[in-house]
Amino acid sequence: MSQRKLLQKIGLYAVLTVGVIISLFPFYWAMIGATNESGKMFSSTPTLVPGTKLIENITNLNESIGIGRVMFNSLFVAGTYTVLSLIICTMAAYAFAKFHFKGRNVIFTIFLLSMMIPYHATVIPLFKMMAAFGWLNTYKALILPNLAYPFAIFLMRQNMLAFPDALIEAARIDGAGEWRIFFRIVLPSMKPALAATAIFLFMYQWNSFLWPLIAVSSEEMYTFPVALSSLFGLSRIDYGQVMAGVTLATVPIIVFFLALQRHFISGMLGSAVK
Amino acid sequence: MQSVSPRSLFPVVCGADTYGSALFFHKRRWMFESEVSSLKTNGPSAKVELGKSQKFRFHSKQIVPYLFIAPAVILFAIFMLYPIIYSFVLSFQTNDGGQFVFAGLDNYMRLFKDEIFIKALKNTFLILIIQVPIMLFLALVLATCLNSALLKLKGFFRVSFFLPAVTSLVAYSIIFSIMMMGDGIINKFLMSIGLDAVPWLSHPVWAKVALIIAMTWRWVGYNMVIYLAAMQNISEELYEAASIDGASKIRQFFSITIPQLKPVILFTAILSTIGTLQLFDEPYTLTKGGPSDATLTIGMYLYQTGFRYFDFSYASTIAYVIVVLIAILSFIQFKISGDER
């Protein structure tokens, strides 16, 4: 029995170790690429050790796409979007979860159904709209369209359903205003859910590609995915530069994720893990 | 690709403890205050005041929820609802010298004769049919492994497998593209273990395989975490009973885990279907739709039609074909899983 268990254990770790290597190797390879000169990744004896060309690659990358600007655009757009969307969606979620009002179910159902509609179906009218407003190539065009994100509303609502009504009622009887109840009583106990939703929103916006590709045409407004894609579309590609760019675009989101992952994954796993 | 996320299924149930104690505290305070107020409400004036405040509360309660949803509803109406409807209208129009005029089903008829569209449709379906089952199966296997009582370092494995799902679609597509080039690291590895190099990106079939491998890498961990969450709800007793009856782990996987997770599997299957039908970032970056349109997807064709050739109405028609396909496929998946139950 115990020998069988040992074998099972060995098998388990073997499968998972192979899985982890496959899962993490591309990240490692991007780092190798970012620290070596362009051709090194394709030489007949590829190196698996980090090189010393990181600064050079980043300098070249900076000349090609202007890292500071791209990084600022990406951070600003994703950051602003996350904060605004979190407030807007959480407010709506609170109403959907804790109030009875006319039209609630209809409106909520429309939100839910819209999740089934592909983003592509909105892209062309959005483009025409932004063009008509003169908002192409602006932060507005990048931030505004998905602020009311149905999934975020849904996620927050599910979490708020569990919040006891009695607590809200008690606060009302104590004379607390509705805003105060929302911000001081409901929100503080929603931290794990808020963190999970925030990660989700930030990742969504940071990685968003199709819409920025359409809404933004001047290099000044490029976000990371668009800048990387344009760099990778050149006829002569400097792979060291590209990999440095990929690494720079990936590190912030990984750091953001690792910092909040405890909430994120426990948010997804529900109470079971805690 | 998958823009809708499934965390929805698993609400964060915040520590019940916090609620419990806060509730207790509030109840006590409330009781105390109601005792006080019952002492006060002896005179007639107090009664009037109570009635007034109740009326006010009733009134404000009516407006409050609308104030809370207003920002979301307004933004949603402008940037989501209106475009969805407008796109539908556009799909029945055609651009006649700068003017959009009604064209009936012309655009839709055109689709059936459009060979590139049909090719894109076939490509998308081929990827869908092969990639989604492989990915979901791998995710289930990994989740089962991670759920094992024998395993330590669960957190490390979970995060490692989830990390690909955090990466931007463009970034990972570039990494895979570089790894899969003719003289890239993957071919070097294959040759070092005595296999032939594979023309990943330059052969019509291998290019699809490359796309499928890359997409599977990116999304397995994501689905794994969803399954892992759902597995917490499967009763341990089922497995114990099966072990006593002598069922092997593999048997248990197929006759307990999969049936128990069926609703969640359905959910992830629908999400992945929606995602794959919209597939754009990966083929755009990894294979650029090539070689010779072998990896052109509906999503890419829509982009080309709309923003290379600026044929907005035809592109809207393509968008609505995606909408219809999603509706049909979701319906079929619901049906299949419903009948079996």
From TrEMBL, chain A:
In the bilayer, the protein is annotated as: Multi-pass membrane protein
Q: Which domain of life is it from?
A: Bacteria
Positions of transmembrane segments = 12-32, 70-94, 106-127, 139-156, 239-260
Listed CDD domains: TM_PBP2
Asked if the record carries the keyword Lipid biosynthesis, the reply is: no
- InterPro entries cross-referenced by the UniProt entry: MetI-like, MetI-like_sf
Q: Which GO cellular component terms are attached?
A: plasma membrane
Compartments (UniProt record): Cell membrane
Every ABC transmembrane type-1 domain range: 71-260
Homology family: Belongs to the binding-protein-dependent transport system permease family.
The protein here is known as: Carbohydrate ABC transporter membrane protein 2 (CUT1 family)
Q: Which organism is it from?
A: Paranoxybacillus vitaminiphilus
Show the taxonomic lineage. Bacteria, Bacillati, Bacillota, Bacilli, Bacillales
UniProtKB/TrEMBL annotation, chain B:
Q: What family does the Swiss-Prot or TrEMBL record give for this protein?
A: Belongs to the binding-protein-dependent transport system permease family.
Pfam families recorded for this chain?
BPD_transp_1 (PF00528)
The yes or no answer to whether the keyword Isomerase is present is no
Q: What is its main location?
A: membrane
Q: Which residues form a coiled coil?
A: none
This chain belongs to which protein, by name?
Answer: Carbohydrate ABC transporter membrane protein 1 (CUT1 family)
User: What organism does the UniProt record list as the source?
Assistant: Paranoxybacillus vitaminiphilus
**Which positions fall inside the ABC transmembrane type-1 domain?**
121-333
Question: What residues form the membrane-spanning segments?
Answer: 63-85, 125-149, 161-186, 206-230, 261-280, 312-332
A single BP term in Gene Ontology: transmembrane transport
Highest taxon of the lineage:
Bacteria
Location relative to the cell? Cell membrane
